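Reply to dn_fold:

You asked what the input looked like. This is it:
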Amino acid sequence: MTLIDLGDLRDEVEQPVPSRRPHAVGRPVRVGLVLVLLLAVLAAAAPPPGRVHAVVPGTAGAQAFLSEDTLFVAEPPAGGGELIAYPLPDRATGRPQRLEPRWRVRVPSTGPVWRVRSAPGGTVLVGLEAGGGSGIETVALDGATGRVRWRQPGFVFHDATGQALVQVLDSEIGSGLRAVDLSSGAARWSRSASPLEGFEVHWRDGVIEAVVLVREKGPIEVLDPRSGAVVASADLPRGASLGELRYQVVGDLLVGAGTGVVVAYGLDDLGPRWRAPLSFTDGVVPCGDLICAMGHTGGVRALDPTTGDVRWEAQDVSGIVPTRGRQALALGPPHASGTLRALVLDVTSGREVADLGHWVTANWHDDGGSLAVTRPLPDGGVLVATLDPRTAGIRREPLREAAGDCQIVDATVACRRRGGGFGVWQLSG
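and this is what came back:
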């Protein structure tokens, strides 16, 4: 440590003048020079501003799950079966910070962790592969301590208002749906279904608005998600004669897509709206004010939601990112490199607006259809980007220390590091 001698600062000697006090000129000048020199020394010793970034340990078999304020690292059963919660970094540093765990807990399971999500009320939902091939189970933890609140079979849908639905899928005994309290796991209502029946959960602006029970036989029902009460019921066509219709909720419609036809019913009363003869349709997604029907072998057709008429077709598209805007991100067929071509379409006409290049998809956000993507850099590292269909723009940033397997939430990205473990970076801009 270097000691800087700032000298001996003493008061000026005052002369006894009866009428006025003289100005002390020499002392303020000397003190000011000393302060300037001190600030210069401190500035030279300070590290550069840096960026908000951090590293956390993890074995080769560990998985990372990024949420809004926490990075969860799940070690596999062979590595101890632990789940560790790290608070995200919130300050810029010259070198990566080493985060300290908020908590770590043992997660008894014979299968791997497949999803970890933060939920309202300070709850963390951990999805586990149950032993013996019996599907998925969910463990709810206290977000502050990691203490187990409840554990149930099935996986959880939840929204920002605190509504939570637990769905059980079993190829032998059938499926079931329960509405539960997030804090305690107590059931508010429940329904069961046979192995060939299922539930469709309808979202609007991030809130669960309705649940549709699609039965093998008997009426299809629309349920209120808070009470489980039936709000609409009707015997709708299904079965081999219509190409094994798969029903999905799009906007205010229940749409059934099969191998030879697409049919639509009003979600409020399940009354018929339209029928369109379309072959080899895998499913439908919202495209702005239209409905995009995805072809079984590729291609997309945009349908008028009022009449079912085809507005436009795009053959070189294998997928559409759901959007409520006037422009949508579309994905082309897979490339030999494992990447997908991303392009922006005008959803009113199907016209290509921009070609955004080839990428590996990370995740998409329900904020207008933006897509988080990555691709490897030629000299090592990962280029992380967000594709925005509204501006046809790319927000990109190179991460030289990253090795891939990236997730992006808001402006935070987590990836595996080239040196092992995981890295967390706050994207600039």
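The chain has one helix and 36 strands.
Hope that clears it up.
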